[in-house]
Write a structure and sequence with these properties.
It contains no helices and eleven strands. The chain is globular. Strands 2, 4, 5, 6, 9, 10 and 11 form a seven-stranded mixed β-sheet that branches. It has a four-stranded antiparallel β-sheet with strand order 1-3-8-7, with no helix packed on it. The protein has strands at 2-7, 10-13, 18-26, 31-39, 46-52, 57-59, 67-72, 77-82, 91-99, 104-106, 110-115. Helices cover 0% and strands 59% of the residues.
Length: 116
């Protein structure tokens, strides 16, 4: 079993910053990639940023230049630094882990609300 626990969400004014964390535990092996997804009310879940086991990153066009994904392998923790936040970034943010076996795991989500 793999457990993913997100933290760091909250309410912030437009232009502000937040850092999300995702602590992974359990049978963590053979990680293909980890990432952050978000889902706003009435919208589908979308990829925000992801990082492969080799450290290659990818970002949604809407967050390029504002968000940075990183990980600390010693702590089994994934991060998402979010700067210059906009009201349209408001969503529940989910941590995702895909193993080389293609087993996929999700966290419970953390709410990010950006006020204008």
């Amino acid at each position: 079993q793999v457990q993913l626990v997100e933290s760091g969400g909250g309410l912030v004014q437009a232009g502000g910053s937040l850092r999300l964390s995702c602590a992974a535990s359990g049978n963590i092996f053979g990680i293909n990639r980890m990432g952050w997804y978000r889902q706003a009310p009435g919208k589908e879940r979308e990829m925000v940023a992801r990082i492969t086991g080799g450290g290659v990153t990818a970002y949604a066009d809407s967050v390029k230049g504002r968000f940075t994904i990183s990980r600390d392998d010693a702590k089994n923790t994934l991060y998402l630094q979010m700067n210059s936040l906009k009201p349209e970034d408001t969503a529940v943010y989910y941590c995702n882990l895909v193993q080389t076996s293609l087993s996929t795991h999700w966290g419970q989500g953390t709410q990010v609300t950006v006020s204008s």
